[in-house]
Amino acid sequence: MCRLFKITGRVQGVFFRGSTRDVCVRLDVKGQAVNLIDGSVEVRICGDKAATQQVRNWLKRGPPMARVSLVRELVTQCTRPQDFLVQ
Fold it and tell me: Among the options 17, 26, 56, 67, which is catalytic?
């Protein structure tokens, strides 16, 4: 199962991408997290249904310093990434 999320709010400069990677590695979810020019973070994940649900729930909170205002979720084409990358 693959999903693409766009997270808005105070999500850059608060270790959002690194924390997302840590959660995904722990859950064996692959993908990537990228800061976007508009101040949001884009997260693409691929993993089993239960693990992607756990990541989805975590993205709604983020790390302690983050203030998530909105999480948009899209079904995306599975690319079968090998790892979780932070860009």
Answer: 17
